[in-house]
Specification:
Blueprint lengths: L3 H12 L7 H9 L12 E4 L5 E6 L2 H7 L10 E4 L4 E4 L4 E5 L16 E4 L1 H4 E7 L3 H6 L16 E6 L2 E10 L2 E9 L3 H16 L11
Antiparallel strand pairs: 1-7, 2-5, 2-6, 3-4, 4-5, 7-10, 8-9, 9-10
Length: 214
């Protein structure tokens, strides 16, 4: 089960450090809005931007990941969950790693020639979306069919969400199936708001959301 109190506590800890703050957290805190909106139907979206993520690109990227003890997805636009991390294969030569549990660091990667890091920790926001209606909600924002079996666990869509480029990953985080949406930090707050708007049809009005603000 995803423990929202632990997520909230972790984000509060990160705020007290010198790390860059999440673009969503910064704007919502200033507006005194909820950071973790939850509906009565068990649908919620969480700002995961400050959780660990990294990327690799190059001819030897797959070898670097295997040497870290991680399994490789069979082909591009697939993801594999493991105890160590979730591995995203975005192309033949590009992989991203996401932490898959609370307060867990990513495995150490020993870089080699013909391979360099992709600094997605700094460039991309990460929204985690769980809902029994997640495919229906996303259908209002994205032209890709995200229903099962068209978009099963382990599938990745590099697409456009509400007019902005994004990566959608169907995977498990802390043993629960979610859609992770990775987008440029500059559009993070915009996507957060349009997703909340899309959720209204399935989850009631905004005042049905439980406040978990700090």
């Amino acid at each position: 089960m995803i423990h929202l109190n632990s997520v909230r506590s972790y984000n509060m800890t990160l705020q007290s450090t010198n790390m860059a703050r999440s673009p969503i957290l910064k704007q919502l805190s200033a507006q005194q809005e909820n950071l973790f909106p939850i509906s009565q139907t068990g649908s919620f979206i969480i700002d995961m931007t400050l959780y660990a993520k990294t990327g690799l690109r190059g001819k030897t990227a797959s070898k670097v990941i295997e040497q870290a003890g991680l399994a490789l997805p069979a082909k591009p636009n697939q993801a594999i969950d493991s105890e160590l991390a979730t591995v995203l294969r975005l192309s033949d030569k590009e992989y991203w790693l996401l932490t898959n549990s609370e307060n867990k660091d990513l495995p150490e990667l020993k870089m080699s020639d013909d391979c360099y890091k992709v600094f997605c920790q700094d460039s991309h926001a990460w929204l985690s979306f769980k809902s029994p209606f997640k495919a229906d909600v996303m259908a209002k924002l994205c032209g890709v069919d995200l229903r099962e079996p068209a978009f099963p666990l382990g599938a990745i869509a590099q697409t456009v969400v509400a007019g902005s480029n994004a990566i959608i990953v169907h995977h498990k985080w802390d043993k629960e199936a979610v859609f992770s949406i990775l987008c440029d930090r500059s559009v993070a707050h915009y996507l957060w708001m349009v997703m909340l708007d899309a959720m209204d049809e399935f989850n009631g009005k905004e005042d049905d959301f439980i406040s978990l603000s700090f």
